[in-house]
Write a structure and sequence with these properties.
Layout lengths: L20 E2 L2 H7 L6 E5 L4 E5 L1 H6 L5 H5 L8 H15 L3 E8 L6 E12 L2 E8 L10 H12 L3 E6 L4 E4 L1 H8 L11 H4 L4 H14 L1 E7 L7 E10 L6 E9 L1 H11 L2 H10 L4 E5 L5 E4 L1 H7 L16 H14 L2 E8 L5 E13 L2 E10 L1 H34 L1 H16 L6 H30 L10 E4 H13 L6 E5 L5 E4 L1 H17 L6 E8 L3 E8 L31 H11 L3 E5 L7 E7 L3
Parallel strand pairs: 1-5, 18-20
Antiparallel strand pairs: 2-3, 2-6, 4-5, 5-6, 7-8, 7-11, 9-10, 10-11, 12-13, 12-16, 14-15, 15-16, 17-19, 20-21, 21-23, 22-23
Helix pairs in contact: 4-6, 13-15, 14-15, 16-17, 17-18
């Protein structure tokens, strides 16, 4: 579910009442001219009371009258909770924008809906729903199913900023938060406001800071003071990448009440054990051996729990289980999440509650087991989903950063050629104009190739460059690149002395990108007019290029790291740059099975060697 989007109330004809803006006939007539689907849902009648033509198409309605006759009563408690929350939001003059799954004529469609509180004649509280054009695609099925599972589960799931501000709540959590005393703290620390005892919140925050996770049983700050198990995990907000807290809550109030009642009556204890409603066992207080256990416990363990066996052997962490039993002596009982052993060596997450009782005229401990393995599975699934979203976002950020860096060179060439055409348009021959127009077309084609490659990598979620070598002549590629740089103003002095080079397989677009980045750096880091010398050597296994400039150079101690991402020479001063160019060069050469490095040279400047294998 998406976060709350707040804005000023929608303004239309007529006065505003209770945060619902009035829509008169003129406003509705204007909305009827809009192509995007728009409809108004009445909280009073639980039906659509107005729709434009786009909404009728979206709902597969034969007519507006047929659409208005459809009953849209919420078919689940979670949907009713969401609508109640929306109603409260509109009364405060806010809007909501979230993903909704609709079922027009039984067909599931998930879209981002923007909802605003409005009122019109006969409907004092209603909701204007704006939907995107039908061409907009839906999220992947796995994501849709995960969202629906989170919305319909009775488990309360929330995402908080580190400051405690609520970023996301599923309907079960929304229902809980509506019961909190109003108003919430001025600092928007909604997380702290949940707890009746501030110490519970502080300990959870301390555990998360120390290990990334926190578990606690706590009394909540709502009427009746229910007891919840609270699990907190340190995550990142997938929308901003900032640190956040993923919180899952489970109401165990009925278990706590049952424990208190059973502790007062051994007769009731025997009845509940026989009922098998909850897995339970009775332990001797002095040595922790089993005095009684019911069939429900046997089902979790996967075998019969024997009389007089050590209860500690049922748990992975014996020390934690003993510390829990100690609370019976010091504080009258307590509870904790533990892993319980099952058949074939498997483990199962359970919540273990203990309380002192008298059993067969001896001091004993009553142990209740609550199966919470499903809670951990949902929480782990959410953590994995958040992690994958962070990875995709980071991959897309890096791909776009590389693309924006590499587009600078062809854009600079286009700019230089266009400037020259403008200055000398009256004296250039047709051949010269064709020559420079060809330079522009080559640069445009290179930009189009870069953009297509970038879009493919983003759509396919492929973070790495893709190398597709074909047989080619490296000298032709070099001359093409140098001609492009010679169009710049001021024009760099580039000298090439190349021997006869053999044909061998390489990816022309990637090698142009790599060589362009090196030449671009050589020009950018030159003090005055850029002077660049390019030579080559051929061996049986490699073709080697040497690119020498006479600029500021790279300190020798930094030669080994300068090709890493976001690394720049310490002597570049205020020259602008992101530290991406040489790291892209290294990636491209590695894809070809080659190498790039800085080699010693006489005098100032930098000499870079590129080794490309003749057989890929």
């Amino acid at each position: 579910m998406n976060g709350i989007e707040q804005s000023r109330p929608f303004s239309a004809n007529g006065p505003s009442r209770k945060g619902f803006a009035y829509l008169g006939p003129e406003a509705l007539a204007g909305f009827g001219l809009i192509n995007n689907p728009l409809y108004i849902y009445s909280f009073v009648t639980e039906r659509i009371c107005w729709a434009n033509a786009g909404a009728c198409v979206f709902w597969h309605a034969e007519s507006t009258e047929e659409l208005y006759d459809r009953v849209l009563t919420p078919n689940s408690p979670s949907t009713q909770t969401r609508l109640d929350t929306y109603r409260d939001t509109f009364r405060r003059g806010e809007t909501r924008a979230e993903n909704w799954t609709y079922y027009p004529k039984g067909q599931a469609v998930t879209v981002m809906a923007r909802c605003t509180g409005v009122r019109l004649d006969g409907h004092d509280e209603a909701m204007l729903v704006e939907l995107p054009p039908p061409s907009c695609g839906s999220p992947p099925l796995t994501e849709l199913r995960a969202l629906e599972a989170v919305r319909h589960t009775p488990l309360m799931i929330s995402l908080f900023a580190q400051s405690g501000e609520a970023l996301m709540r599923n309907p079960a959590a929304e229902r809980f938060f509506r019961e909190l005393p109003a108003p919430l703290p001025d600092n928007n620390d909604h997380f702290s406001a949940m707890f009746a005892c501030p110490d519970d919140c502080e300990r959870l925050r301390a555990d998360v800071a120390a290990s990334g996770h926190g578990f606690r049983t706590a009394v909540m700050m709502v009427p009746g003071g229910p007891t919840h198990t609270v699990k907190v995990s340190a995550v990142s907000d997938p929308a901003t990448g900032k640190p956040a807290l993923l919180v899952t809550q489970n109401d165990i109030s009925q278990t706590v009440i049952a424990l208190r009642q059973l502790a007062a009556s051994e007769e009731a204890l025997e009845a509940v054990l026989s009922l098998n409603a909850l897995p339970a066992m009775v332990l001797a207080a002095d040595d922790g051996r089993v005095l009684n256990a019911n069939l429900a416990l046997d089902n979790i363990v996967g075998r019969g729990v024997k009389f007089n066996e050590k209860a500690e052997d049922l748990f992975d962490d014996k020390g934690a289980f003993h510390r829990l039993l100690d609370t019976v002596q010091t504080g009258g009982g307590g509870g904790q999440h533990l892993r319980m052993k099952a058949v074939r060596g498997a483990s199962h997450w359970v919540y273990v509650s203990v309380a002192p009782i008298a059993f067969e005229r001896r001091h004993a401990i009553l142990v209740f087991i609550t199966d919470v393995n499903w809670l951990y599975q949902i929480a782990d699934s959410l953590l994995q989903e958040l992690g994958s979203q962070r990875e995709v976002a980071e991959m897309q950020r890096r791909v776009l950063a590389v693309a924006s860096h590499d587009l600078r060179t062809p854009l600079a060439i286009i700019d230089s050629v266009a400037q020259r055409l403008k200055r000398h348009a009256s004296i250039l021959t047709s051949d010269e104009i064709i020559f420079r127009a060809t330079r522009i077309l080559e640069s445009v084609n290179r930009m189009v190739g870069l953009l297509e490659n970038t879009l493919e990598r983003i759509n396919d979620e492929v973070p790495a460059l893709v190398c597709q070598p074909t047989m080619g002549q490296l000298a032709d590629t070099m001359w093409s690149i140098v001609h492009g740089f010679n169009e710049r103003r001021p024009c760099p002095s580039i000298t090439m002395r190349l021997p006869a080079l053999p044909e061998f397989p390489f990816d022309k677009a990637l090698i142009e990108q790599a060589l362009g980045n090196i030449l671009d750096n050589a020009i950018k880091y030159s003090r005055d007019e850029a002077r660049i010398d390019i030579t080559a050597e051929v061996t049986d296994e490699f073709v080697q290029l040497f690119i020498r400039d006479h600029g500021v150079g790279i300190p020798e101690v930094e030669w080994g790291v300068i090709f890493s991402e976001n690394k720049r020479g310490s002597n570049v001063g205020g020259i602008e740059g992101k530290g991406l160019g040489l790291s892209i060069v290294r990636q491209i050469l590695e894809l070809h099975g080659g190498q790039v490095n800085v080699v010693p040279s006489d005098g100032e400047g930098t000499k870079i060697r590129i080794k490309l294998p003749r057989v890929h």
